[in-house]
Amino acid sequence: QVQLVESGGGLVQAGGSLRLSCAASGRAFSNYVMAWFRQAPGKEREFVARIGWGGGSTYYVDSVKGRFTISRDNAKNTVYLQMNNLKPDDTAVYYCGARAVGTSTYDHWGQGTQVTVSS
Asked: I need a surface site. Which of 2, 13, 47, 106 has the fewest CB within 10 A?
């Protein structure tokens, strides 16, 4: 099992930046593919970005490409999401998810952190 705790959310004006962090505890962090998802009010949870166990493989949803960067520090058991040029449409609760390498289901989740972007 791995436990996840997100932090770094807040209120920011459009065009601003935030850096989310997700601290993991429990089993070997480097055995997990990590991802960020988000859920806006009245909408389903959507995938935002993921990063492979070694940090060299990343993938983003089209709407955040060029603005968001996912990274990880396996020595600190932490994954980050740097969000630049934020837009009101980025407003959502952001969740950190983990899945074991070789599996397809994210089955470990944090409690979420609210990001609000004002226009």
From this structure: 13
